Each structure stands twice: as structure tokens, then as C-alpha cells.
Amino acid sequence: MDISSIISSSKPDLKLYEDIYKHLHQNPGLSLQEYLAAETAAKHLRSLDGFDVRTNIGGTGLIGILENGEGKTVLLRADTDALPVEELTGLPYASKKREVDVEDKREHPVMHACGHDMHITCMMAAAETLHKAREHWKGTLVILFQPAEERALGAKAMIADGLYDAERHNCPVPDVVLGQHVMALAAGTVGTRVGSFASAADSFKVTVYGRGDMLSIVSREVDPREAAVVTVGSVQAGMTENVIASEATIKINVRTVTPATRRKVLAAIKRIVKAECEASGAPKEALFEPTSNFPFTINDEAVTNHIAEAFTKHFGTKHDPESPPLGGSEDFSILATEAPNKNGGKGVPYTYWNFGGVDPKKFEEAEKSEDMGSIPINHSAYFAPVIQPTMTAGVDALVVGALSYLT
Fold first, then answer.
1. Catalytic: which of 79, 81, 338, 396?
2. Which residues of the chain have pLDDT under 70?
């Protein structure tokens, strides 16, 4: 039986999952506070006979392990956290939640503005599909729900808490790690890409005692064939207009797509800040404090081509094997690069793909009218995937990816 036939005979009615999705969307949790998502996912996995569920990994992270004979070990990952955004979608199931952030102690509106609720729901349905299809595959399946992706904390926390440590959570070492992200693309489509798929992102705050210019870094320091974005997102100095502040805090975000450019841009920022402080006679050196660091996501060529072949067989023309890179950054790759491998070192191959969440007719109309700016993107207060066919494609992609290694 081919993979598409297995899915057709094993995939459950997704109506239940559509209701779960709406509930998760209405009740999001900020990074490090994904309690409902974790409880929902753990309860679901425990309801599927044979899953060994291990919780509280690096916070609210959890895994479900399904052993089904000899074969490869495949890890599927979904992230679970939401954002401090006030939802403006007008949907009947829109979030009205407010929550005090455990980090800054302030109350914020909360929204699943990046589609992680869809990731959770697709993963739950994929787990049930693969559970029902056990007679058709052999190996070990690991379903992983990861917290705090938005702050680049979750994958690191799960690794630090002993995700793969035999004395801690003892997650089976995967042969391959797979993941996906819903994006502002036509629903029902999926996209893969070999190589660089998501940029690295470095955020930090700098306390300085003079003036500086970050705007020239990209134009003067970066090869025009490369890409880099330096954003000075916040400048804070003093409390009132008639008192000269003794210091200023600048919050900076840097996105780069190659390690060489990353090193060059970060070095340039430090060089310029140091020079400006010296020129202005600052009483002490600037203080650099990292706030988050996302790694590069560089899809393994062999794994990506393997998945792309399976996707083309199942999705046909709705699969794009040369998908554009993500518009942001991800910590997904850490779950693979920090995994022990069979050679005694670290690092197993991985690939990360996207799937669309925009009503296909609206997407087509926006393309024809050259008005793609009318389509809300991830992190927008208006971003909300159309439930179908988004969910169907997301479930199928996870199952196809897993079965391509397990059958």
C-alpha cells in the first residue's frame, strides 16, 4: 500500500481537531506558559495506546514515543507558544485573553499570531493517523511538542534538561528530525527547499554613553550578494525632557543568512559602538547583553530531496520543491544539531518545510491584482490560517514525511 492510500485509510475525521484548534486559538499561552497546549497534547497522546509520554521537559515541553518494531527513528516537532499581540481578526473564536508574562511581569494581550495552534493540532492528528496505521510501518516515532520557540528558548531548554540523556528523559536518538511551519501561502500547498531556509537572528541590548550610527552597517559591511537586516527597535534614555540622561539603552535585532555575514555584522556593530563611545568620551565601555539567539536553519540536501520526492507523489503540483525561505528565524534545528549521533558526536540530519494557510481564492486574487500586501503575514494581529484545507495539508505533510522513512 502506498503512502497516500495509508493516509486515506487511517486519517481520522478532522472535525474534532477543528474544534480543538479553535479552543487552542481562543486560549493561547505566552512563551514558558503553554500550559493548556501541553496538557491537551499530553492527554491526547496518552489516549493512543502504546505511546510512552514524558512531560515537563525544559518547561512545558513533552514527547510521545511509539515503538513499532525494528526500523528508523523519526522525530516530528511542533512548537506551542503564542505572542503578546492583541488579536484583530474578528473571528468568532478570536482570542480575548490577557496574561501576565513570567519574564517582564507585565500583562499583555495574547494571540496565536504565528500559527502554532495549527502546528499543535496538525501534530495531534498526525499522531493519531500514524498510530492507526501501525500495521503499515516499522520503526520508532517520536512526537515532540516544544515550548518557547518565539524567544529562542524552548529547544535549548529541552536539550539542557536532558532530552536525549539516558539518565533524564531518554528520548530515542532520531535518524532524522522533521518539522513544518504554516505561512502566508495558499492553503493546501506545501513547500520544501534544500539549504538555507531560515535566517539566524541575534537580539541584544546595548547600554551606551554616546551617540552611534547602525544604519550604515548593511550597506558598507555586507556583500551585496548576501542579505542582512539590522533593526534598532528601541532606544531608551532618561525619564523627562529637561534632564540629560547619563546612559541610553538600545535594543538591536540582526538577521543574517550565512555564518560569514553574521560574524561580520555582529563585529561591525561592536566596533561602531566602541568607536562612538570613545569619541564621545564615555566614562566606561558599552555593555552588550544578549537577549535571544536563533541559529541558522539549513536543510540537509539528502533529507530534503527525500521528503520532496514523497511530497510530490502525494501533493502533486501543490508541492513546491523550490519554496522561498521563511521570512523569519527558528530554533527547530537545535533539536537535530544537538542530538547525539551514531558516530559518537553530535548532529543528525533535518529538514523543515512550510505549508500554506491563506484561503486559496484570496491568495490567487491577491497575486493577480499584485496586492500581496493585503494578505496578513505571521506575527500580524490579523494573521489566522483558514482552517481547511490548511489542516488537511499540515496533517498529511507530517504523515508523509514520517512514513517516507518508516515504510
1. 81
2. 209-227, 240-244
